[in-house]
């Protein structure tokens, strides 16, 4: 049986006798760390890594600490003004929207840095800018929701009646 030499070439290219290192392995090597080569063995190890992820974002990202401080402030004011159940629901959605946006932004920044290895690339800049824009959109939505929810309470607290507060009360039915 004759063998086509092109087939042999193809086989050699398709099955190289060395294994290319993944980006994670290269980074681990640079940092003298152990690369994760296995999946999490059970639910509690997965949970541990997920909680570590939350902890790292809070430690690394100043903006995340700002979001959390703001969320605490909103919680205190909400308790003081006595929001009702459905108002709390909106507040929770609003606050988590911004926090979630910051998580995504952190992931995008880390992945971009990993891919370009912190070198300049116009696309890296574009991706980071768009990602930062996403956080601004999320924070804008948070602010709009909070203003709509808190405005009548704050106005009532200061004894102010405006068209806007009547309009919001009408919206609430
Ligand atoms: N590798 C890169 N190539 C080109 N431009 C970059 C690169 N990395 C960052 N930039 C530019 O610098 C800006 C700041 O990037 P950086 O990674 O410092 O984000 P950051 O200041 O931590 O953002 P944030 O405040 O949202 O956490 C980006 O929005 C982008 O315009």
Automatic annotation (TrEMBL):
Spell out where the chain crosses the membrane: 43-59, 66-83, 89-112, 132-150
For this UniProt entry, what's an example GO CC term? Answer: plasma membrane
Q: What would be an example GO MF term here?
A: metal ion binding
Q: Where does a divalent metal cation bind?
A: 61, 109
Q: Which UniProt keywords apply?
A: ATP-binding, Cell membrane, Kinase, Lipid biosynthesis, Lipid metabolism, Magnesium, Membrane, Metal-binding, Nucleotide-binding, Phospholipid biosynthesis, Phospholipid metabolism, Transferase, Transmembrane, Transmembrane helix
Annotated cofactor note: Mn(2+), Zn(2+), Cd(2+) and Co(2+) support activity to lesser extents.
Give the membrane topology, semicolon-separated if more than one. Multi-pass membrane protein
**What does the record give as cofactor?**
Mg(2+)
State where ATP binds: 39, 61, 109, 128-129
GO biological process assignments: phospholipid biosynthetic process
Task: Tell me which residues this entry annotates as catalytic.
Answer: 102
| Location within or outside the cell | Cell membrane
* InterPro entries given in the database record: DAGK, DAGK_sf, UDPK
The UniProt similarity line reads: Belongs to the bacterial diacylglycerol kinase family.
Protein name as catalogued: Diacylglycerol kinase
């Amino acid at each position: 049986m004759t063998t086509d030499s092109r087939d042999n070439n193809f086989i050699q290219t398709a099955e190289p006798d060395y294994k290319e290192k993944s980006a994670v392995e290269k980074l681990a090597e640079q940092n003298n760390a152990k690369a994760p080569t296995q999946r999490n063995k059970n639910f509690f190890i997965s949970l541990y890594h997920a909680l570590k992820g939350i902890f790292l974002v809070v430690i690394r990202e100043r903006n995340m600490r700002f979001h959390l401080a703001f969320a605490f402030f909103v919680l205190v004011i909400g308790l003081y003004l006595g929001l009702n159940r459905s108002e709390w629901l909106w507040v929770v959605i609003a606050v988590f929207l911004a926090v979630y946006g910051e998580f995504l932004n952190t992931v995008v920044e880390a992945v971009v840095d990993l891919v370009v290895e912190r070198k300049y690339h116009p696309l890296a800049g574009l991706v980071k800018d768009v990602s930062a824009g996403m956080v601004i959109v999320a924070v804008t939505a948070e602010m709009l929701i909070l203003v709509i929810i808190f405005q009548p309470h704050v106005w009532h607290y200061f004894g102010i009646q405006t068209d806007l507060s009547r309009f919001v009360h009408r919206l609430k039915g």
